[in-house]
Structures are given as structure tokens and as C-alpha cells.
Write a structure and sequence with these properties.
Helix content of chain A: 25-40%
Distance between the termini of chain A: 41 Å
Radius of gyration of chain A: 25 Å
Shape of chain A: globular
Largest interface: A-B, 62 and 62 residues
Low-confidence stretches of chain A: 1-7
Number of helices of chain A: 19
Oligomer: homodimer
Number of strands of chain A: 24
Strand content of chain A: 15-25%
Chain lengths: 658, 658
């Protein structure tokens, strides 16, 4: 099954080699660059009015001795600044900006000033509990923050060529490397929140230092071994938790919540905190690729299948419960209480990207695309200043306000959270979008996402520029043009054919073509010439999606999709209660041009009906006369754009009636 | 609208005057008498193996100085013993039992020994915090426990004629009466958990002492006045809560949760903890009747309408969320996360019974019957030793185990809870069932529930015995026979005609009759003669119930009812997933004889269908091919009997398809 040919491990193209010019994505990228990054800098500096203060910069200033005061914010607050710097690194890779770079350099100087002489760097422990370093890995995110620092440092090094943050990161990583490991006197432990594992892989690649790769492998392979590190640590600190100061706990920390209940190679079912899980799976896939580790690859495939085929929402989101922001169990996909954190979909994208390196299977690209087009962008309002953490499948604003089990479901995007993980995570993902679009081996160029722009690469001894033009997600025409190509020699263009496009048409220089399609990729091997145009017409027929019968919440319901976009119905177009609407089975789904704030988008309309209380019901809560039905045109909008108009009810899974 | 004729305030018949001999109810009453009461005595004494210990008796022994040790259990643990004694009082009223009475007398002796010299009685404060009496009414249930003591004392006095517990109760009530009130130096406060209000009304009736009625009125009218007693008390004790020792709270206690956000006369919407609310409404109705208080009656009617027409489940249960065991908001009736505590339905029955005293409206009887037949009995397993707190509308056992938002939903009745409010509450309600069946004014006898047995009363100057035979809930024949009747003179027999029986037939001594039917009661005024038989044939046609469109959770769904019983579908009869089943709109609902553990009951069967994944789905979570449908006979069982066979999925609201 595995494609372990010589092109089996293609690498993402360097971000600097990919420029995006795309009618759909460029506005998002410009929003990130022009609004989100500056806005988040203001937020990190506590200058956003009426929003929860971040305190992140202030904590660094206190740790650096530039200010006095107490640490404030979450124990992992440092990571917000690191994620912002990572986004800045990508933004500068794509287009230089001296002003932004100067601000970033100042922030990096501050970070360096907060680093301790031994390389240690964490403002919480430095300011609040210097004597308690490394005593509560379970709760305190020390290695998690280190990981985000490392990712930022690598991104900034790529983006600017400067080693200022990379040197800080290496000093910290060396400190960690000395402390953790299987050797005598070393801590045989790992973090409560996985993140440093995938970061160390990046650091190893950026520096060429294998020790970081070995450290990543140590963290991955140590996790879940017995006796449990988390349990031993819990006993050592007197059975306490950071989150409940002064309380002696009856129960030790949940190992399954931290994906540490068994060695990772033996795991088959995604459990616990969703972001922790997918960050870890991404690192496992990284290491499986680097080390040709079949055992780890098998675990990755099992976990992928469990997440994607048993625990993923149709919008590419994961985490069925807000209790612990966690997975629950197979097929438990409630629509009105799901968590579906934006960060978890970002983590799923990271995992998918790594799996694509291991195996060119369309499913990885499909899921990456599903999460990207539907959840990641849904997490951000069109103003770039309001964000969703939770991406609900169903919203009744009164219930969000009036039912405590639904308080986490917000009908309106929020300004800035005390725990602001998602906004900078969206920023760093979208700033580096180019690196998800393509990958290449020595003789094959893979186009995973069909986003307009240019990609430059050396392949088969040739210098090549591929220009993509794409009308996605609104229409299905995609053209890949060899804009420049030096010399001669065959290489393969491997273009993902999304699973939502069962009827795709291909042409080469205007002549229809039936390429070899394997596992969701169309392969064309050829001595490509400058000016060659490979075109795909994707099938944009709106589609009904049904869920497996085991996913009980969706029984009798249908979701709508067109191209990569999942749709939903909103009160503003359809009237309340949304639950009273049903769509006619088999009725035509008609594309419709959006207007107002949805101008330029494609909506869907369909014949449906509204069920209403009969006239004789007289306001009764319960009655014996059946509801009356009247035809109603149902209008659905792209899920990713929901909640950008008047607040109201929303539903992804719509009742279907014959 | 109000029936304020001379018979406007009929009184329930004395429990001793009603004997129940009924094929449906007698087994329940025998179960209470022979199993539940003895079992609970064992539980109160910590002698039930593998069940959470109650500690209730032990706490009294410690408070009485008979044992040393620490208080254990909930702060309101005393009330479990009181509720048990109340049930015993009713049981002894119905049939003497020297052995049981001896055990109860010993328990009462123990309670009396734990009473303090000043009349104070509460084992928590006496044992654990004697200096903190009356400093935290909000959280600590001191008056709540006093209320249950009073109810027990009145019941035991009725049942045995003994004043032993009544004297204890009066001493405590006098102590409370001296402490609380509008006078100088008195506490202008009230309890966080209403209960003493309705208990004081009973004490006033039992003793003839008006001061108790005035104290009840004080508690009711003081509640919700500004400045808020609960907020002042919270400030006085340093902004702390009993439930979070040592934590200085940011937020004061929720006034709406305690129904203290506005004066009770101004309340229109049921909020907060459901049991607290309905206990209070019952007391309000009591006082409205005693004091001919139109303002209070108007508030009762508003609150009744809100509860019953906007916040009640179809099984007569209330409390849409387990967060605080509380009401949420109008039409928020989720089926998979509801709380629907057994105790709350008992409280709703208390409220309905009081409203029936005020106004002979069938709706009060309908709701009383709905809660009694569907939720109260569902709360108890057929062995009398396992109980539900939560009465779910939908169960997926895997979700109860694997989704933290559904941990409160149990698929199997539990042995004995640490917080064991419901089991003794079921016992005391069913032990006194006779007092809910009839009421009488000077010249009218009301039959509210059609339960077989005899009722003796003096009416219109005559001594009368009414014998009821009833085949409910399995068939609809009810006969009321004047078994004995001294002298002569007209009086009215007012017989409730349930709203579920739109086609009822009446006869008098075999001759069809069309009685005057007003507001759900059939009125027959007559010089009743010994041997007269008034018969009703109730309409047992199975019925479909639909919910208002505003109750979004039930859109496209139907519930089934036959007679007073609501039905549900269980996995054991229909296979999993239950959610894949749909019933055909308009299909016949056929009664079916139950077998096995459901022998003697009537089930329902209907034509339906099962939707399954199509063959080409290949195990996919999402797919484009619609589900396949195959006809399936759907079998529904009485909701009250669910969960008495193999554990599995259950659903009340069934999808309906044309």
C-alpha cells in the first residue's frame, strides 16, 4: 500500500519559493498581514480596548528585570508571543517589511533578556516560582512554550536569515537536552502538552544538529511508558495540581487525557485533549519519515483513521466535548455541544501535511483542505479582529446564553480571549499557507491545494516556475502553467484530485487527457516545456453528505457541500426556528450568488419545507395534532462565513424529508 | 375564570380514609412498604453493601452524644432520615405495623436526643460548626432540614397519633419562629432551599397554631426583597461558600438560582434549581388558599403556566440541565442532557395538588398524573432497591460513559446515592398516594386519579364510602360505586376526565349519561344512593404527541402515549442505533401484550423503518449516497418501565417520516 518509491518523501516547498496570488486566499493573507498581526501585537501589549489583557509582553519585561510586578495570565502565556513571532517570520519570508521586522527584533531582544544564564526561558517560572522549574510538566507547559519558541525561531531564521531568536532557541533546547533523556541523572519525562516534539524536528532541520531529532524521539518514545512519569511527578509534588492550588487531589492526572496511557506506538484511538493529540501525531509522522520508522508510521495510520473516520466533524474539526477540549469516543459527534477548537483543526492540518510527506494519498489532502477551508477560516471574522475558539455545528443563541452546558458555544466571534491560543495559531498557519500547497521530491512536484500563485523549484536538474490559477472555491477551473522551465528532462506533475470532485476533466495544452489517477492524485510524467498548461475542471456540483448510522446525532440529516466548502443554514436567511426546516430529499441544490456581506460568494438554495404548529395548537407545548408543512426555499451559506451578519441560529446538519 | 364557589377549596381526603386496592398501584405500594422502607432503613444505617454510606443515623448518634466522630455526608443529610420517617408515618396511617413503629420510635428518640436545649436541631452544625448556626442560610439547608422534620412529625402524628416527633418539631419551629421575622433583632431571612414553607402550613394545620402559618407567609413574602438577604449574608461571612471552603468568591450567590431575584409575587418565569422552585410554588399555593390571597394565586398561575407550558418534559419532568439541577429557559428541552430529577417531579405533584385545591381544573390533575405515572415510578426499579435521579429522554450508554457532558445520564438505576434525596422522596410520595386521589368540599367529592380502592368521607351530612375499580393504565374502564351511603341528600361527584381521553363515555347504573363537563371534570349532582355505579370508559386509543415548534429538540419527532403512559423505544426490542429508526407518520399504533419482565403491560407497535448505511459506504464516516431504508416494526414500552431489562439505548422522541 505504501508509496515508498524514490519520491516517497517529498518535502514542502520553501515558503519563500511560493507566492500566493489568489482571489479567494489573498484577501485572507492580506488580512493576516495588515490587520491580524498588528492587532495581535497590540493585544500582546495589552492595548486592545475592552479585551482581556494578554500580559504576555509585560511578563517578559518583568522576567527580564525591566519592570517589576507579578506574572499574570495563563501559565503558557509566553507561547502567544512565540506564535505571533512565528507568524511574523512567515510573513517576512513572503514579503520583507522593515518596520515589522524592527518590532519583532525588539520583541526578540526582550525574549533574549528574559533568558536565564543556563539557557532556561519561561517567564512564569522565572517570575513566579523560580525554585519549581521542571517539577510539574503535567500541568505547566514548560516544554510546550519552549516548543513554540523553537518554531518561532526557525520561522524567523527562514524569514529573515537572522539567528537572533534561533540562538535563544538553541540555548534553551541545549538546556532541555541536557536535562531530559534516558541517561543517569536525567529526567525521563515529557510535557503535559505536546508541541516541543515537532518543534525539535524543525530545529534539527534548520541547524543540522541531530541531537534535537534524538531528543524529539526520546520524548515521543518515552511517553506512556510505565511506571508513568506523570504519576510519579504527581506523587513527588504531593498529589497537587497547578490548577487547584492547595488541594490534595484524590485522583492522579488522567493519562489518557495526555495521550500517555500507553506507549504511542501502541495507541490506536485518539483520546483526551484534541490539540495535544494532533500535535503529537504530527511529530510522530515527522519522525516516522525521518527515521523510516515503520512502527511509528503504522501508529500514525491507525490514529489518522480513528480521528478522520470516527471522530471528525464534517467541517474538519475535532474535539466533541468542551470538557477538557477533548475527544470523547467513536461516532460521538453531538452538534449542539461540540468543541471543535480552531487550534485542533490547525493541528489536524499539521498532521495531514506530515502524512502527505509519507504517502501521497488524497485523503490527507482532502482532510487538510476540509479543515482549512471550513474551520480555520471560520475561526476568524472578516475583520481579522474577532475569533471563534469553538466552531459549533449548531447554534441557538438563547441556549448559548441560557443553558450552562452550551455556554462555550458562542453565536458571535469574540475579541481576544484570556487564553488566546487560537488567534495567533490562525495567523501562523495562514502566513505559511504556501508551504502547504506544494511538495516536491527529486523528480515529482505535488500540487496539494489549488491556490493561485507561483511556485519556484529545482526539479530533475531543471529550474522551474509553476503558475497556478484557480477559481476555487467558487468555481472549479484550475490551470497549472509551466511559466519558466530551464533545460530539459522528464519529471512528474502530481495533482491532487479532491474526493468531492468525482467527475473531473483534465487537459494538457487544451487537449483532453486521462492521466493516471492513483490514491487521489493525477500523475503526468513528461518532459515539461515552458508554456505547458495542465488544466483541471473540477466537479462543482453541490453535494449532499450523509453520516454513518453510528453517528447518531446526524440520523435523518444531511449536510451540504460544494467544492471544498461545507454549507450551513442561518436564521438571517431562513427565519427561526431553524430546527423547523427540512430539506426535500433529492431536490435540486442550486448555486446562488451571495449579496451584501456575502457578495462574491456562492450560496446554495434548495426546496424545503417549514413545519409549524397547527392553528389548533393554541400555544400548547404538547399536542396531538401533527405540525403543518409549508414549502420554503432554503438558503445555505458557506459554513466558514457563518456569523458574519446578524447573530442568530445556525445549523450544519439539516433534517431531510422525502 | 376562577371557580370560587363554596366548593372552591376542597381538601384532600385524610389518608386513613383512603385504602388502595388496585392491580397497578398496589404492587408499588407493597414494594414501598415491604422493600423500600426496610431497605432505606438499612441504607440510613450504612448497612447496604457496596452502596455509598448514608451516615445519617451515625450523625444523629454523634450529635446526641452517643458516639464520637465527625459529621459525614451532605450538609442536608438529616433530611434523609426525616423523609424516611415521613414515609413511615404514611405507611402506618394506612396499615399499623408494631415492628416498624418501634424502629421509628427509636429513631425519633435519637432525633429528640440530638435536639439542643433551645430547640435547635441540625446534626451538621451541632457536630461540626456549633458556632456557625444560621450564618449561611444560602448554602446550608438548616431550614430545609427543619422543614422535612416538620413534615415527618405531622405525618407520624397523623399515622400513629403520637406526639413524640411532633413535640420535637414544635420546639424547633418555635425556636425558628423566635429567630426569624420582621421584628427587631430577628433575622429577615429565608432558606437557600425552600421546604420549610410548605411544612409550616402542615404544622399549623396539625396543631391549629396560626403562628406557623404566619411564619410561612413571612418566609414567602420576604424572599426576593431588596436589599438581598443572601447577598448581605454572603458579605457578612466574607464572601465564602460552604461548597468551596477557604475560597473568597468573586461572584455572589445567584439569586435567580434560589428564586430570590425578585419578590415571589412578581415572579412569572421558573428559574434556578427545579426542586427549590416547585417546593416554593406549592407553599405559595397553600398560602393563597389559606389566606384567599389573589395576588399570590395570580403568581402561582403564572408560574404554573410557565413550568407546564414552556419548561416541562413530556414525561412530566422538569429541570433541563444538570448544571445546578435547574430550569434553563423557555422551550429549552434537550433530550440527551436533561436532568429531570425524580424529586422535581414530586415537587411538581405537590404544586399540582395545591393548585387543585384552589381550582378544579383538569390540567392540574393531568400534570399530576403525568409526573406520577411516568417520572416518579420511573425513578425506582421494580426491585425497589435501585433508583434514578435523572430521568433522561434519550440514552446512549456509551455516551453516558464516554462524554463528560452526559455522565449524569445513567443507563442503569443506581443503588443508593451519597446525595440520596430521591429514593426517600419516592417512598413518602407513594406511601401517601391516597391523599392525592380524592378531595372533598362540603357538598362535592372530587376524584382526581382513578386508582382502585375505597374512600370514606362525610359529605352533605352523609357518611359515604366510594369504591373505585379501575383498569388503568392498561385499559380505560373506571367504575365508581357508592358502596355505602347513610341517609339522603344531594352531593356532587366530580370526576376528572383526563385530557388524553377526548372520547369518553359515561354511564350511571348502566345507562349512558352526558354529564356536565367543565375544565376537565365531569360533574354529576344527585341524591346518590347506595349501589349507584358511575362508570367511565376512557379513550385508550394510542396517541401521537407533537411538541411546539419552539421546542427545537423535538422538531420532526413524535412521542407516543396511551392513557396516562408515555412510551419510549429501547434497544432491546428494536436494535441499535435507536436513532436510525423512524416511525411512519399516520401509521397505526397497535397495543401489544408485553412479555417476560414486561408481562401484564401493554406495549405499542407501529410501522416504521430503519435507515442503514448503503453498501457502498464502506464504513465511511461521511459519504454522498443516502441511507437505505428498510421497513421495521417498532416496539415501544411504557417509559416508566424503561431500563428494567438489558441496558441499552432508549429514546422517547422518535423521528417521524411520511
Amino acid at each position: 500500500m505504501t508509496l515508498r518509491m524514490k519520491d516517497a518523501h517529498p518535502r514542502p516547498l520553501d515558503l519563500k519559493k511560493v507566492s500566493i496570488e489568489d482571489p479567494y486566499w489573498s484577501p485572507y493573507l492580506n488580512l493576516i498581514r495588515n490587520t491580524v498581526i498588528p492587532y495581535q501585537w497590540e493585544a500582546l501589549n495589552d492595548r486592545v480596548p475592552d479585551a482581556d489583557p494578554s500580559r504576555a509582553i509585560r511578563n517578559f519585561r518583568i522576567a527580564a528585570g525591566l519592570e517589576t510586578g507579578k506574572f499574570e495570565g495563563f501559565v503558557f502565556q509566553d507561547s502567544d508571543l512565540y506564535k505571533w513571532l512565528e507568524a511574523v517570520g512567515y510573513a517576512l519570508a513572503v514579503s520583507p517589511d522593515p518596520d515589522l521586522e524592527r518590532i519583532a527584533d525588539e520583541a526578540i531582544e526582550l525574549i533574549a533578556a528574559a533568558q536565564q544564564a543556563d539557557g532556561y526561558l519561561n517567564t512564569y517560572f522565572t517570575v513566579a516560582e523560580p525554585e519549581r522549574r521542571w517539577t510539574n510538566l503535567t500541568d505547566c507547559h514548560e516544554l510546550y512554550c519552549a516548543g513554540h519558541l523553537i518554531e518561532a525561531a526557525v520561522a524567523y531564521f527562514y524569514g529573515t536569515g537572522k539567528r537572533n531568536l534561533l540562538d535563544v532557541a538553541c540555548r534553551l533546547a541545549d538546556h532541555v537536552d541536557a536535562l531530559f533523556g534516558p541517561g543517569p541523572g536525567q529526567i525521563r519525562g515529557y510535557d503535559g502538552h505536546q508541541e516541543i516534539e515537532l518543534a525539535l524536528v524543525k530545529l534539527a532541520e534548520a541547524t543540522g544538529a541531530d541531537k534535537y531529532m534524538r531528543l524529539a524521539s526520546f520524548f515521543i518514545d518515552e511517553r506512556g511508558q510505565q511506571p508513568s512519569f506523570f504519576r510519579q511527578e504527581w506523587e513527588s509534588r504531593g498529589r497537587t495540581s497547578y490548577w487547584q492550588p492547595g488541594v490534595v487531589q484524590k485522583e492522579p492526572p488522567s493519562l489518557a487525557y495526555h495521550q500517555a496511557d500507553k506507549p504511542v506506538r501502541e495507541q490506536s484511538v485518539a483520546t483526551g485533549h484534541a490539540v495535544r493529540a494532533v500535535y503529537m501525531y504530527a511529530a510522530m509522522a515527522d519522525l516516522a519519515a525521518r527515521n523510516n520508522d515503520e512502527g511509528l508510521l503504522a501508529a500514525c495510520r491507525r490514529l489518522w483513521n480513528n480521528v478522520v473516520h470516527k471522530q471528525m466533524y464534517v467541517n474538519g474539526s475535532i474535539g466533541s466535548t468542551h470538557h477538557g477540549e477533548a475527544f470523547t469516543f467513536d461516532y460521538d459527534l453531538p452538534n449542539d455541544t461540540n468543541y471543535s477548537e480552531t487550534c485542533a483543526s490547525i493541528g489536524l492540518i499539521l498532521f495531514a501535511q506530515r502524512m502527505l510527506r509519507l504517502e501521497a494519498r488524497g485523503e490527507y489532502g482532502d482532510v487538510l483542505e476540509r479543515a482549512l477551508y471550513n474551520t480555520v477560516t471560520a475561526g476568524m471574522a472578516s475583520d481579522g479582529k474577532h475569533f471563534f475558539y469553538v466552531n459549533p455545528m449548531e447554534v441557538w443563541p438563547e441556549a448559548s446564553a441560557g443553558n450552562p452546558g452550551k455556554h462555550h458555544v458562542k453565536a458571535v466571534r469574540q475579541k481576544w480571549y484570556g487564553c488566546a491560543c487560537c488567534p495567533p495559531n490562525v495567523a501562523r498557519l495562514l502566513s505559511s499557507l504556501g508551504s502547504y500547497a506544494y511538495s516536491a521530491s527529486e523528480d515529482a512536484l505535488y500540487a496539494h491545494l489549488h491556490i493561485g500563485g507561483e511556485a519556484k523549484l529545482d526539479i530533475a536538474g531543471r529550474q522551474v516556475t509553476l503558475r497556478t490559477s484557480s477559481e476555487l472555491p467558487w468555481s472549479g477551473r484550475v490551470a497549472l502553467t509551466l511559466a519558466e522551465a530551464s533545460g530539459a528532462g522528464a519529471f512528474t506533475l502530481a495533482v491532487r484530485v479532491p474526493s468531492w470532485s468525482p467527475q473531473s476533466a483534465f487537459s494538457l495544452n487544451g487537449t483532453p487527457l486521462s492521466p493516471d489517477i492513483r490514491d487521489g492524485y493525477a500523475y503526468v510524467e513528461r518532459d515539461w516545456q515552458e508554456g505547458d498548461v495542465f488544466e483541471i475542471a473540477l466537479d462543482m456540483q453541490p453535494r449532499r453528505i450523509y453520516a454513518a448510522a453510528d453517528a447518531r446525532a446526524n440520523a435523518g440529516r444531511v449536510a451540504l457541500q460544494r467544492g471544498p466548502l461545507v454549507y450551513c443554514i442561518e436564521e438571517t436567511d431562513n427565519g427561526a426556528p431553524i430546527a423547523s426546516l427540512a430539506i426535500r430529499a433529492g431536490s435540486e441544490l442550486r448555486p446562488l450568488q451571495g449579496d451584501g456581506r456575502l457578495a462574491g460568494t456562492v450560496l446554495l438554495e434548495a426546496d424545503g419545507l417549514r413545519q409549524t404548529d397547527p392553528a389548533d395548537a393554541g400555544g400548547a407545548l404538547y399536542r396531538t395534532s401533527p405540525p403543518e408543512s409549508a414549502p420554503q426555499r432554503i438558503v445555505a451559506v458557506p459554513y466558514t462565513l457563518w456569523g458574519n451578519r446578524e447573530p442568530g441560529e445556525m445549523q450544519v446538519w439539516i433534517r431531510e424529508l422525502p
